[in-house]
């Protein structure tokens, strides 16, 4: 099965294979409590050891909890490659491959030489972990159902069917640092029947077996430890934990990962004896668990801009109570094990996100990274760290806020003098720079972070530095030479590599750029919001590690208890409803339509009619 594929994979074997390892701080004892760890992506060493040497030329280190940055067609929204390569907050980049499959073969697979995915997209191998998934985890539009032998993926030319063998071929051709196994996720309106949930589990397991099956040629085993044991597969595979909103279904899927294989499955994945032995991490997509009905296919890439930034509550999950058997319109049946217990689709109490994640993880080893996409607020991040021990979050929250002109402004832990207001009104997590109130504000974007050029003496207490291109803009270390004649003009006045920081960009300046539709406004906002989120999780790691003001005060229970107290303070001060985002979205829409008399003008007239009909109908 796939001889041509394996021969093609063998031609790529000459490039250095980097293996992902994850280590937890020794003080992390609880399975689901907050924890601090480190992910290292490095070339395997000759001897297995717990001390991982870091080669600065080819290794990437990521302290956790941390963030993953999603892309659209391999591009971080609003940022150039230079911005990505210079931003400290961007270390793990995820590439949904469905945006490339409109052509056959997909264009990225035509890249030759070592590290084809890094080179094709222009990401620095020394700075970035680049992962590859088929579907965008934040895209919740309603899709045609998957089949037994294919996944429905969406590209610019419509829906395409991607088979597990296709996915395997793409992965071995592009050689990403991390690959997400195919998962059968329902993208139809809930509730989902027991039959559909069972099919989702069975297909996801079958597709995981396919990506883990052994190659035709020998592969040098990994010498870096993962959960105390050497890795037994050349790919760094993350598996999406299936089961939807049913706790029994999630437990059944986790059991399928941990049980010993037998028969054809065991022969296919030798020397792996359990599927979990070939998996380096677990992922959870919260966007598909929300209670909102998926929207039909449309021109918009995601529905997240409209509903992701809302207050999280258990009622936002799909209702899994007493699901009705609904036939699934797929062709053919596959040979599967005996059906899962009937209680798989029943739940007396609607579970929350933390309960679902715990159900998936309680049977599995705790020494592997846990990745979550679709978080709606920093509050939800803190709760998932506290209650589940999540290690990686996607940064789509920051990008979605920047898209509607919001500069995030929050910190963890809170300064000692910051508490709930006397009026009882909570503080916004950011600033809506479309608002006219910012037209003449000339301060920096964030109250919690300072620019590199600002003097700390002007603040009552020292503030952390925001390294983004908006708060700490840097002058070029040397003059940009556009011709040979420029050498004569600037040769004697070269800065000799000295970094010079300029004053921060003001809120009024960003307000002006947004209203004049300057693309640089969103570029600066994305860079700033990612830096705020990065600093936010840096503060989380500091608290959990027992550090205060950069000084280690001891680990263990002291850090965890302080973290719990700081989470409660954060929730009491900052508004989790994200009202500033909703107001900003309306302002963005008004400014976006006020651009002339072309298509946007017709859309504006149409919107007025829709609103008028809604008022009259009410």
UniProtKB/TrEMBL annotation:
Organism whose genome encodes this protein: Pisolithus tinctorius Marx 270
Protein name: tRNA-guanine(15) transglycosylase-like domain-containing protein
Gene3D superfamilies (UniProt xref): Queuine tRNA-ribosyltransferase-like (3.20.20.105)
Superkingdom of origin: Eukaryota
Any one Pfam family match given in the protein's UniProt record, by short name: TGT
Cited InterPro entries: Queuine_tRNA-ribosyltrfase, TGT-like_sf, tRNA_ribo_trans-like
Single GO biological process annotation from the record: tRNA modification
Segments forming domain tRNA-guanine(15) transglycosylase-like: 59-259, 354-472
């Amino acid at each position: 099965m796939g001889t041509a594929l394996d021969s093609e994979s063998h031609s790529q074997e000459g490039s250095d294979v980097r293996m992902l390892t994850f280590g937890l701080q020794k003080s992390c004892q609880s399975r689901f409590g907050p924890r601090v760890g480190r992910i290292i992506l490095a070339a395997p060493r000759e001897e297995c050891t717990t001390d991982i040497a870091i080669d600065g030329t080819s290794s990437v280190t990521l302290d956790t909890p941390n963030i993953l940055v999603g892309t659209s067609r391999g591009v971080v929204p609003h940022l150039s490659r230079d911005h990505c390569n210079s931003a400290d907050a961007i270390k793990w980049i995820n590439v949904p491959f469905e945006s490339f499959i409109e052509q056959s073969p997909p264009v990225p697979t035509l890249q030759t030489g070592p590290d084809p995915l890094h080179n094709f997209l222009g990401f620095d191998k020394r700075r970035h972990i680049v992962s590859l998934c088929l579907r965008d985890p934040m895209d919740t539009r309603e899709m045609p159902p998957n089949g037994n032998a294919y996944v429905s993926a969406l590209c610019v030319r419509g829906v395409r069917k991607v088979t597990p063998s296709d996915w395997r071929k793409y992965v071995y051709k592009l050689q990403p640092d991390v690959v997400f196994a195919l998962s059968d996720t329902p993208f139809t309106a809930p509730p989902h029947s027991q039959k559909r949930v069972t099919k989702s589990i069975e297909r996801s397991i079958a597709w995981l077996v396919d990506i883990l099956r052994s190659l035709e040629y020998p592969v040098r085993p990994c010498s870096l430890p993962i959960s105390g044991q050497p890795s037994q597969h050349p790919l760094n595979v993350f598996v999406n934990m299936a089961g939807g909103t049913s706790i029994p279904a999630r437990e059944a899927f986790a059991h399928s990962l941990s049980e010993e294989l037998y028969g054809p499955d065991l022969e296919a994945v030798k020397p792996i004896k359990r599927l979990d032995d070939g998996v380096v991490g677990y992922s959870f997509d919260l966007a598909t668990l929300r209670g909102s009905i998926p929207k039909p296919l449309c021109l918009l890439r995601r529905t997240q801009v409209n509903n992701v930034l809302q207050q999280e509550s258990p009622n936002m999950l799909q209702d899994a109570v007493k699901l009705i058997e609904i036939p699934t319109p797929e062709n053919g049946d596959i040979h599967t094990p005996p059906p899962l217990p009937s209680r798989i689709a029943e739940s007396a109490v609607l579970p929350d996100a933390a309960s679902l994640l715990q159900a998936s993880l309680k049977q599995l080893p705790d020494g592997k990274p846990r990745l979550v996409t679709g978080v709606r607020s920093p509050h939800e991040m803190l709760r998932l760290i506290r209650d589940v021990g999540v290690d990686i979050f996607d940064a789509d929250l920051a990008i979605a806020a920047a898209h509607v002109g919001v500069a995030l402004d929050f910190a963890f832990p809170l300064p000692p003098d910051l508490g709930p207001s006397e009026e009882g009104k909570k503080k916004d997590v950011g600033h809506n720079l479309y608002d006219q109130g910012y037209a003449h504000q000339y301060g920096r974007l964030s109250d919690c972070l300072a620019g590199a050029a600002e003097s700390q003496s002007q603040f009552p207490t020292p503030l952390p530095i925001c390294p983004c291109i908006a708060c700490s803009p840097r002058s070029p270390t040397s003059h940009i030479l556009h011709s040979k004649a420029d050498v004569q003009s600037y040769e004697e006045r070269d800065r000799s590599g000295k970094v010079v920081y300029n004053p921060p960009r003001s809120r009024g300046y960003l307000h002006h750029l947004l209203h004049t539709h300057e693309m640089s406004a969103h570029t600066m906002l994305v860079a700033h919001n990612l830096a705020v989120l990065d600093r936010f999780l840096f503060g989380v790691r500091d608290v959990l590690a027992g550090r205060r003001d950069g000084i280690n005060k001891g680990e263990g229970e002291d850090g965890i208890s302080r973290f719990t107290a700081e989470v409660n303070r954060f929730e009491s001060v900052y508004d989790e409803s994200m009202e500033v985002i909703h107001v900003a979205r309306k302002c963005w829409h008004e400014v976006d339509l006020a651009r002339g008399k072309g298509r946007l003008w017709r859309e504006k007239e149409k919107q007025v009619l829709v609103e008028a009909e809604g008022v009259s109908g009410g």
